Amino acid sequence: MKNSRIILALVASIGLFAVSCNNDDSNGGETIAPLAGKWNYSKVGTTSGTTETLIDAPQNQSGCNRDYIDLKLDNTVIEGNYDSTIDPCALFTDNGIYSRSHNDLTRVVNGVTKVQDIVNLTFNQLKLKDDAGNIEVFVR
């Protein structure tokens, strides 16, 4: 009697474990983290085969706020660039539109279209990669 209870408990535990580890991708592989918001440039890099090389974003000027993209809920985008060429940490912005199709992000700013794969999207990080293997990492 005691052995049958142990076996029953073991079978029930294994069944619960199997159900909790189900790999059902009912959301099509997309994350539920919001894409809209202000994202600061953190790192840039490239891929070669399966090797990724990332460095601190060189477009971020020392002593200034980080350059950014601001993806608005109405599908407009503002790209912010801090530049000290004329005035210290002067902010220059360009406006455009963006769209998301599954895990692709398309931005059109000043007539230039940029299509990137959303490699990672969490509440704190957005990682994009284009077809040439160029990577941009943004943080909130």
UniProtKB/TrEMBL annotation:
<dbReference type="Pfam" id="PF13648">
    <property type="entry name" value="Lipocalin_4"/>
</dbReference>
<dbReference type="InterPro" id="IPR024311">
    <property type="entry name" value="Lipocalin-like"/>
</dbReference>
<protein>
    <recommendedName>
        <fullName>Lipocalin-like domain-containing protein</fullName>
    </recommendedName>
</protein>
<keyword id="KW-0732">Signal</keyword>
<feature type="domain" description="Lipocalin-like">
    <location>
        <begin position="35"/>
        <end position="128"/>
    </location>
</feature>
<feature type="signal peptide">
    <location>
        <begin position="1"/>
        <end position="23"/>
    </location>
</feature>
